[in-house]
Amino acid sequence: MKHTLKFFSSLSLLFSMFLGYAQDVPEISKNKDTTTTKKPQTEKTVKTAKPEIQEAVKDSVVKTDRYGLRVGVDLYKLTRGLYDKDYKGVEFVGDWRLTKRYYLAAELGYEDKTTEDDRLTSSANGTYIKAGFDYNFYQNWLDMENLITIGMRGGFSSFSQELHSYKIYNPNPYWGELPPIATDQKYSGLTAAWIEVALGLKAQVLKNVFLGFGVQLKLLASNKEPNNFENLYIPGFNRTYDGNFGIGFNYTVSYFIPIYKKKTMASEIVKQEEPKKKK
């Protein structure tokens, strides 16, 4: 019994000592704050995108322009005498290509026209020449040579007039009209000058063969007349009893004679390459 009490007393003392030691030792937390040190990120190599270079590729279309002389005839004046007994005439036309757009142009002709009016009958015959330039504002396709032109001319005519007969004006025709008086007076050495604006077109129907149509608006600048007679018709100008203004037209066929060629850049088309697709 005595030994049993010593055992319990020793065990109680050991237990009390263990409890005191447990209170003196600080409690260690299981959840320790672990500082995670992140390694400094290495700077990534930034690939700079190369600017997309758009290469301009010029597709140049080389056009060969022909330069030379074009000569022809007015079909209207040439054939008018077939159905009009009071008219005979012919006109030759020509132009020379000076630059890409400008042409030197001229017309040379002869006319013999009889005019029958209510009061008189007269005829005029003579030669004329017109010279100036044309500007082609038509943009042709490749290997085409058509023309739509506007131009100016200066005209000069040397002619003669012949008065065949005339009637005296009677304000009181109670006894009827007086018979015409035949004179057959001829006036030579007459001249006239004018300027005109010419509109025209020419289309190539066969190789080097062109059909054309033109209209001219005329303004009479000078007119030498007989002392007692007016010029009713001036070759190259047309009739004059509409005042100082006149109008004319022609219908031509002409042939082009090439002399030399010149190459020009017809067009330049700039094409841009499509941007390359990103991988």
Describe the structure using short key phrases.
279 residues; two-stranded antiparallel ribbon; 2 helices; disordered N terminus
H-E string:
HEHEEEEEEEEE
Structural class: mainly beta
The largest beta-sheet arranges its strands as 1-2-3-4-5-6-7-10
What is the general shape? elongated
**Percent in helix:** 10-25%
Largest sheet, in brief, is: 8 strands, antiparallel, barrel
Q: Give the terminus-to-terminus CA distance.
A: 95 Å
Uncertain runs are 1-5, 18-58, 268-274
Radius of gyration: 53 Å
Tally of alpha and pi helices: 2
Describe how the helices and strands are arranged.
Elements: H1 2-24, E1 56-74, H2 75-80, E2 87-97, E3 102-116, E4 120-136, E5 147-166, E6 181-206, E7 209-223, E8 233-234, E9 238-239, E10 245-272
Description of the structure:
The protein has about 280 residues and is mostly beta strands. The protein has 2 helices and 10 strands; from the N terminus they run αβαβββββββββ. An 8-stranded antiparallel beta barrel has the order 1-2-3-4-5-6-7-10.
Summarize the structure.
The protein contains two helices and ten strands; from the N terminus they run αβαβββββββββ. The protein is mainly beta.
